[in-house]
Design brief:
By secondary structure, the protein is of the alpha/beta class. It has eight helices and nine strands. A nine-stranded mixed sheet has the order 2-1-9-8-7-3-6-5-4. α1 runs parallel beside α8 (about 245-260).
């Protein structure tokens, strides 16, 4: 698998997608792309933290390469993990003076409600039609949680569920990861509201079923070998792109220059 995401070409079907994301190659060697707008929220699980972090990098860099800072914003809830520190200064980061996950998620909920009022006043039902028909544009907001277990002690699954239930039309998407594969963390409420699943190798059949509702992830080989479930009966076997530190740094530096020029 080439790790040069910058040179990967989107397949023709991506032209009909609103938020296309390339995750890697399927078993036939074809580029695998999905539409985050249809996902619309994702749960990423597996035993290996590096694989989970690489999946997040894959998604973030896809979006940085395709969308300007006016078109898309990130909210990164990375708890104590340092893996996202490099992204802090890019113009795509939504500047929030908030110090914990509860305050951030409450802000996202309020922003979702604000957007629904804007859509209603404009006579539109979704951010997509609103942006097509109005001079004022609303950027997509991608909310990422690096480790679910770090915020579940605050019992935030209820606010996550409320956001996930309505956020799609408002252009807000949740992507939540975890290496804590227990039913106390990945609850039924969380799973119900994050229909698209990405799963890397796990140690037990129970852990596989926890993320995918099927046993297949126990047989994965590691090193980016993953299963992608779009929330229906289909299951795709994918080799995730490997993002190198140099490639991530190069793409980030490009957008730091963009920020300086704004």
């Amino acid at each position: 698998m080439s790790n040069n995401i910058s040179n990967m070409k989107f397949p023709v079907k991506a032209n009909k997608m609103r938020i296309p994301i390339i995750m890697g190659k399927d078993d036939s060697g074809k580029t695998f792309v999905f539409d985050l707008a249809k996902a619309p929220h994702i749960l990423i699980g597996g035993k290996n933290q590096n694989e989970k972090n690489n999946a997040f990098d894959t998604i973030i860099l896809n979006l940085l390469l395709r969308f300007s800072a006016n078109e898309l914003k990130f909210v990164l809830i990375n708890n104590k993990d340092e893996s996202w520190e490099e992204y802090a200064a890019i113009p795509h980061i939504l500047p929030l003076e908030l110090d914990n996950a509860e305050k951030i998620l409450n802000y996202i909920y309020d922003e979702m409600e604000r957007r629904y009022k804007i859509l209603a006043n404009a006579g539109e039902k979704t951010i997509y039609t609103f942006n097509q028909n109005n001079d004022e544009k609303l950027p997509y907001i991608i909310v990422m949680v690096n480790e679910l277990s770090e915020i579940m002690y605050e019992d935030l699954q209820y606010i996550i569920a409320e956001i996930a239930d309505k956020a799609r039309a408002a252009g807000i998407h949740l992507i939540i990861g975890t290496n804590s594969l227990s039913y106390e963390i990945v609850t039924g409420m969380i799973k119900c509201n994050l229909p698209t699943r990405i799963c890397f190798k796990v140690e037990t059949v129970d852990a596989s079923r926890l993320i995918l509702d099927r046993k297949n992830a126990k047989s994965l080989t590691g090193n980016g070998d993953m299963l992608f479930s779009p929330g229906n009966e289909k299951l795709y076997h994918i080799q995730n792109i490997t993002i190198t530190p140099d490639e991530r740094k190069n793409i980030i530096e490009k957008h730091l220059i963009e920020r300086i020029s704004l």
